[in-house]
Amino acid sequence: MTRDDLPSTDTSGERRGPHQPLGVGKLPSGILSKLIDRYVPPQPGVLVGPGIGHDAAAIELGDTTLVVKADPITFATEQAPHYLVNVNANDLACLGATPRWLTVIALLPEATTTEATVEAQFRELADACDQFGISLIGGHTEVTQGLSRPILIGQLLGTVETGRLLRPGQAKPGDKLLLTKALAIEGTALLSRELEAPLSAALGQDLIARAKDLLRNPGMSVVADAQAMLSVEGVTALHDPTEGGLAMGVRELVVSSSCGAHIAFDRVPVLPETRAIADYLGIDPAGMLASGSLLAAVRRDAAPAVIDACRAAGIAVTPIGVVTEQTEGVTWRRDGGETPIPSFETDEVSRALCLRSSK
Fold it and tell me: Per the CB 3.0–4.6 Å rule, which of 39, 147, 255, 263 could disulfide with 332?
């Protein structure tokens, strides 16, 4: 199987017509920006509203700011509640907030939902909330016609002192870009679970067992990563790379700051399990779901202290690039050449799963 066998990802930047079907994945940033500008005016008291690279909203309530995040789980079938809590908590942590209250909409497939499977979902959700001291406060649960797998949608609320809110869009040219842990932890764990049988047959059960374990060790959470970084002055932006992986995460972080970026991709840590699975499926690790590693922009003079704070907390961290002027674009040095970073509007994990489901 090669990359050419997979459904195409639009990396060309070509404009679609308004009636042309969109690809699977996040709404393209150009379309989303246009719709936000047209239909979502700024509101009093909203410190962070919708925008590219804005993964949570922030509402000022005097000395306290309420931070609100909503995100679905649409890829994973196994341990979906664990994914749900972690991806939502990560985005709150990137604004400096402590996650506190969660509501969940659970849409469950009619063909496979039983009382026992619903209880298992609730049990996993309660366990995941307990990890962060989050209270499950409500939501909606139904068996839905036409679904092939559960879809969970979470809305997580948290708080931060207003003066300690880290707003998106504060990165500056010259800032160092840091990445914790390794690339595509989430995508590697998810593919190893969703495609366990064919991957085990091709790559060996031991490697796939290690890949599956990445869901728990090191896990998808970057809450501790964010807390360690924010214990030191000088962090200008934090971003949890999710759909589209590191490539889209870098784009979103710097576009929200009206900057560019240059990444030394050969410095980016890639686990052997990730590389083996990506090579076999013919996908690019840089475009795979990447929760589990935290992307940070840090003032150049503060970078050594931030790195020390992470390592003191037992969190691996690697300098991978620099924020540049917007006119320099978003580029990387990879395989000996310098090129623009592609825009993975459809995540590589989704493309691999789509290919398997179509066979």
Answer: 263
